[in-house]
Amino acid sequence: MSRIAIAALALVVASAAPASAKDTVKGAAAGAVAGHFVGKGHAKAGAAVGAVVGHHHGAKKKAKRK
Q1: 0.85 exceeded by the pTM?
Q2: How far is Cα 52 from Cα 54, in angstroms, rounded to an integer?
Q3: How many beta carbons lie within 10 A of that of residue 56, not counting itself?
Q4: What is the rounded distance in angstroms from the CA atom of residue 41 to the CA atom of residue 31?
Q5: Which residues contact residue 24 at a Cβ distance below 8 angstroms, ignoring those fewer than 6 apart?
Q6: What's the Cα-to-Cα distance from 18 to each of 13, 34, 44, rounded to whole Å?
Q7: Which of 41, 55, 62, 64 has the smallest count of CB within 10 Å of its CB?
Q8: Is 50 within 8 Å of 24 (Cβ atoms)?
Q9: What is the three-state SS of the chain?
Q10: How far apart are CA 49 and CA 4, in angstroms?
Q11: Distance of CA 63 to CAs 18, 54, 55, 66, Å?
């Protein structure tokens, strides 16, 4: 596992507001696709960053609903 993926996983786990897994997975998928088109080996980094961004947006959506 790359350092970026480990850091992203730590951020997701340590976040204060839990978001749905659906948002995190959707972000990871979108990031992986974007990273794939950037160049060789960037899909994993894209997935890690996408998971963090998806989790963040999911948490914002959840906070807005309350």
Answers
A1: no
A2: 5
A3: 18
A4: 13
A5: 12, 51, 54, 55, 58
A6: 8, 25, 23
A7: 64
A8: no
A9: CCHHHHHHHHHHHHCCCCCCHHHHHHHHHHHHHHHHHHCCCHHHHHHHHHHHHHHHHHHHHHHHHC
A10: 8
A11: 10, 14, 12, 5
